[in-house]
Amino acid sequence: MPSTMVALKHGTALHWCALSPSAWLDRHPTIQNPEAIMREYQGRTIQELAACTCDRCKRRLTPEEPGEWQERLSFDHSCGFESVFGDGNMVSVDLCQHCVQEVLGRWLRIGPSADGDEPIGIA
Ligand SMILES: [Zn+2]
């Protein structure tokens, strides 16, 4: 069950509470008629990618190995009309940087990044 946060304005004070406005007022009987319920927030759960597996070599990639994690190539592409993969299909892939280099290497355009940094070197 999601939690709710409520902001009540009383004078110059803004009170935040994790109760319903009426429950909050019941617990604070000295505050009569707050000027407004400014906002009500509802908690929610956010899913974050925590790991993936290279579709080619099956290497497990996690944020615990930041270099491998940051250099993976992952995409989800929603196909449009006349796609060779079928109209409306989804094409997805997760590849480690090593497989990207081995499979796509000869077609990759590698150069300085847009922020001006020089490439350090390519194995
Ligand atoms: Zn791989």
Radius of gyration from the CA trace? 26 Å
Whole-number tally of structural domains: 2
What proportion of the residues is helical, as a percent range?
A: 10-25%
β-strand percent reads 25-35%
- Largest β-sheet summary: 3 strands, antiparallel
Oligomer: single chain
Describe the structure.
- The chain is an alpha+beta fold.
- The protein folds into two domains: 4-42; 52-107, no CATH class.
- Helices cover 16% and strands 28% of the residues.
- It has three helices and seven strands, in the order ββαβββαββα.
- It has helices at residues 21-27, 66-70, 97-104, and strands spanning 4-10, 13-17, 36-42, 52-53, 60-61, 73-78, 90-95.
- Strands 2-1-3 form a three-stranded antiparallel β-sheet, with no helix packed on it. Strands 4-5 form a two-stranded antiparallel sheet. Strands 6-7 form a two-stranded antiparallel sheet.
- β4 (52-53) and β5 (60-61) form a beta hairpin.
- The longest helix is centred in the last third of the chain and has 8 residues, at 97-104.
- The radius of gyration is 26 Å and the shape is elongated.
- Zinc ion (ZN) is lined by residues 54, 56-57, 59, 95-96, 98-99.
Task: Summarize the entry for a quick read.
With 123 residues, this protein is α+β, with helices and mostly antiparallel strands. Helix content is 16%, strand content 28%.
